[in-house]
Amino acid sequence: MKKVIVTGGAGFIGSNLVKFLLKKRYFVINIDNLSYSANIYNLKDLKKNKNYIFLKTDLNDRKKITKILKKYKPEGIFNLAAETHVDRSIDSPYPFIENNILGVFNLLEASMNYYKKNKKHRLF
Fold first, then answer.
1. Order of strands, sheet of 76-79, starting from the edge strand that comes earlier in the sequence
2. Can you give the pTM of this predicted structure?
3. How many CB atoms neighbour CB 105 within 10 A?
4. 48-88: per-residue pLDDT in tens?
5. Closest CA to 29 of 14, 7, 10
6. Which of 9, 13, 37, 96 could crosslink 83 through cysteines, CB 3.0-4.6 Å?
């Protein structure tokens, strides 16, 4: 069974991707920091699914992301984590910079270091 990570898996698109991957018989590790755009209730029916794990984690915590990669050894990552409401970015741009740029940078760095030891790993 293939293992994948979905970041932002409690959002609208992410939660649908998680459910789709589970139907396709993937083992899914869902990483989400549960910000304003997340809805954990989208995934409430998956709590007992043995092929699903939810981890409340911020992509800016590179050490934790690295530990997750080492522990679960995924074959790929689907990155759907993002701050998306444009009107919020105008009022307060820092969270967008922190999550959409720095968070993705941390994910890329951790993924690149993981890839050096696991050549089958992919970032989608």
1. 52-56, 27-32, 3-7, 76-79, 122-123
2. 0.88
3. 13
4. 999 999 999 999 999 999 999 999 999 999 999 877 666 76
5. 7
6. 96
Whether the Cβ atoms of residue 5 and residue 78 lie closer than 8 Å to each other: yes
pLDDT in tens, 91-102: 777 877 878 888
**Region label for 6, one of left (φ > 0), alpha (ψ between -120 and 50) or beta (otherwise):** beta
Strand duo 76-79 + 122-123: pairing: parallel
State how far the alpha carbon of 29 is from the alpha carbons of 68, 84, 93, in Å. 9, 22, 29
User: Residue 46 and residue 40: Cα distance in Å, rounded?
Assistant: 10
Residue with tokens 């679960």: 72
Q: Which two tokens stand for residue 11?
A: 């959002």
Rounded-to-integer distance, Cα 29 and Cα 93, Å: 29
- Give the torsion sign (CA, 79, 84, 90, 93): negative
